[in-house]
Design a protein that fits this description.
Blueprint (H helix, E strand, L loop, with lengths): L5 H21 L3 H25 L4 H26 L6 H23 L5 E3 L3 H14 L5 H16 L3 E3 L2
Antiparallel strand pairs: 1-2
Helix pairs in contact: 1-2, 1-3, 2-3, 2-5, 3-4, 3-5, 4-6
């Protein structure tokens, strides 16, 4: 089977970009960290399309994709939001960041444990993490309360039963 590892390689790059985002947060380069999360959204949209095009979709690829998504769209944007805004709140800021990551993990686990019907149940972690990173990228001097509300709303939407069409 030619090209069977190409989608997994794209997913691995997605994961690497998520880790680079975390490293950039540690280096206090928040703009580049947010940009890495947004780059990961492009890579995430590519791996599934490539797998379907090459007819090499697999359970392994699905699991690898979820692990990459948890880092790139759960941990990286949550830590970015914490470092740029929520840090001023102390422990409550940590709780909000952790809640976002846990809800993202629950959303991914539910997705992997159910049969896909062409509609998402709950907001995908890629959308939630991408929106959070975009907010951190474009909003300067953003109010902590606003970030808390957005992150908790996104957390709830990820684990909700809301039906979202796949585009």
């Amino acid at each position: 089977m030619r090209g069977k590892n190409i989608p997994n390689a794209i997913t691995a790059v997605n994961l690497a970009v998520g880790v680079v985002s975390l490293v950039l947060v540690l280096a206090e380069n928040y703009t580049a960290a947010a940009a890495m999360v947004l780059l990961a959204t492009i890579l995430d949209s590519m791996d599934g399309k490539v797998a379907r095009h090459l007819q090499v979709s697999s359970d392994f690829g699905k699991e690898l994709d979820s692990l990459a998504d948890l880092v790139s769209f759960g941990v990286a944007p949550a830590i970015l939001a914490y470092a740029t805004v929520l840090v001023t709140l102390g422990i409550p800021g940590v709780v909000v960041a952790v809640t976002f990551v846990i809800c993202g993990a629950l959303r991914l686990a539910r997705f992997n444990a159910t049969d896909f019907t062409g509609r998402f149940v709950g907001v995908p972690i890629t959308a939630a993490g991408g929106l959070l990173a975009l907010l951190m990228l474009v909003a300067r001097d953003i109010n902590e309360f606003f970030v808390v509300v957005i992150m908790l709303a996104l957390s709830y939407l990820m684990i909700s039963r809301i039906s979202i069409p796949k585009f």
